[in-house]
Amino acid sequence: MKYRSTRGGVSGISFTDALLMGLADDGGLLIPDHIPDVSHSLPDWRGRDFVQVAQTLLKLFIDDLEHDDLDNLTAEAFANFDTPEVVGWKHLDGLDVLELFHGPTLAFKDVALQLLGKLFEHVLADRGERLNILGATSGDTGSAAIAGVAGMENIKIFILYPKGRISSLQELQMTTVPDENVQCISVSGTFDDCQRIMKSIFSDLQFKAAYSLGAINSVNWARVLAQIIYYAYASLQKDCESVDFVVPTGNFGNIFAGFIAKKMGFPIGRLLVATNENDILDRFFKTGEYSLGEVFRTNSPAMDIQVASNFERFLFYHFDEDANKLCSFMEEFAQSGKASISGPLCSETFLSCSISQAETEETIAEINSKYGYIVDPHTAVGIRAASSIVTDDPIVCVATAHPAKFPDALGRAIGHRPSHDRLSGLSDLEERKQEVPADEAEIKKVIHNFTAPA
Ligand SMILES: *Cc1c(COP(=O)(O)O)cnc(C)c1O
Question: Which pTM was predicted?
Answer without folding.
Answer: 0.95
